[in-house]
Design goal:
Number of strands: 10
Number of helices: 3
Number of domains: 1
Bound molecules: fe (ii) ion
CATH topology: Jelly Rolls
Radius of gyration: 16 Å
Order of helices and strands: HHHEEEEEEEEEE
Strand content: 35-45%
Structural class: alpha+beta
Oligomer: single chain
CATH class: Mainly Beta
Strand order of the largest sheet: 1-2-9-4-7
CATH superfamily: Jelly Rolls
Helix content: 10-25%
CATH architecture: Sandwich
């Protein structure tokens, strides 16, 4: 039987109510992976006509987390970013995605950007999910058609992202 959006949302709510810290969010990663491996779930929710490129599939009225579907048709190189005060979980359903974790070199003061340099690169494959906790700077590189289930700690439509800039290679330590 298929894993439904309602089941996923209910189980995420349960996991975050049981533990709103890192362990609870890791439990959410496991739930996301379960959805990623369910072909009926993917076929129903991660369609190009619904997700251009992001659609909020479910927003929890109490805890505020969102289950989002993303469909990207083309290759792209992401810019380093965080999600302001929110955490996020990326889950890959279709298309290998190269993720880059960035290290903060200098915290900007006032209007100055936070300066970052690449720290780690790894490939996420279908079924993989990964937690980016509050303040974790990351960027995705897509080689072609990619479909994601992404959980946002709060709806990112309402969140201001940090001002982040990659340091030039010549000045990187
Ligand atoms: Fe992100």
């Amino acid at each position: 039987m298929s894993y439904t959006l309602e089941q996923l949302s209910d189980e995420i709510r349960g996991a975050l109510k049981a533990d709103s810290g890192p362990a609870g969010k890791q439990a959410v990663c496991n739930l996301v992976s379960k959805a990623l491996l369910d072909q009926e779930f993917i076929a129903k929710h991660l369609t190009a006509d619904q997700c251009r490129p992001r659609k909020v599939l479910y927003e929890d009225p109490e805890l505020g987390f969102c289950v989002c579907g993303h469909v990207y048709a083309d290759a792209s190189t992401g810019k380093p970013h965080d999600h302001g005060p929110s955490w996020a979980i990326y889950g890959v359903a279709v298309g290998d995605t190269e993720m880059v974790d960035w290290r903060i070199v200098k915290r900007g003061e006032g209007d100055a950007p936070i300066l970052v340099e690449p720290a780690k690169t790894y490939v996420m494959r279908p079924g993989d999910s990964h937690l980016y906790d509050v303040g974790a700077v990351h960027s995705p590189n897509r080689r072609g058609l990619t479909k994601l289930v992404r959980i946002e700690g709060e709806n990112l439509d309402n969140v201001k992202r940090s001002n982040i800039k990659a340091v030039e290679p010549a000045t990187a330590k």
